[in-house]
């Protein structure tokens, strides 16, 4: 259901299409007018954030897929003991999650001092403003991609004084990103 086909190799029995219009007895009709016999369909909706299990008192909201108010895409600026690991997408997940955890653990241990609530909110507003200046839509705020991801990881690692991402990792990630 992706608006632009993902340039990846799929098995012969898998194809990407835009939207299901209707179900038939033995298959489906798609938005482009084509149809296919199929037993199953994998419907990919993308990243849609929702936290219905959180109390409103937490202060976390989702507006056009932007999770607010999060400092560094991780920390609830109202209740800094609440963290969200893994919000950024279009990233190399596990290394990014690892750096987010290292950063947040350093905060919890008191090794990294957070700015005031107001300063953290201002930092998120500034990042969102920069995002808009570059012509990006709100819904892509947490979509880091290659360059933003590397900058983000190196920023977190500098704050906790751990190892920076090596250029070889960057090259490998770029290689695999271009393949898929």
- Please state how the strands of the largest beta sheet are arranged side by side: 1-2-3
- Strand tally is 7
Order of SSEs: EEEEEEEHHHH
Largest sheet: 3 strands, antiparallel
Beta-strand content bin:
5-15%
Provide the helix percentage. 25-40%
General description of the model:
GO terms for molecular function: flavin adenine dinucleotide binding; N,N-dimethylaniline monooxygenase activity; NADP binding. This is Flavin-containing monooxygenase. Belongs to the FMO family. By secondary structure, the chain is an alpha+beta fold. The protein has 2 domains: 1-46, no CATH class; 56-179, FAD/NAD(P)-binding domain (3-Layer(bba) Sandwich), CATH 3.50.50. Helices cover 34% and strands 12% of the residues. A hairpin with a 3-residue loop joins β6 and β7. It starts with 19 loop residues before the first strand and ends with a helix.
What brief labels describe this structure?
180 residues, elongated, two-stranded antiparallel ribbon, FAD/NAD(P)-binding domain, 7 strands, 4 helices, 2 domains
Write the layout of secondary structure elements.
Elements: E1 20-23, E2 27-30, E3 35-37, E4 61-63, E5 66-68, E6 70-71, E7 75-76, H1 93-108, H2 117-133, H3 145-159, H4 167-179
Antiparallel strand pairs: 1-2, 2-3, 4-5, 6-7
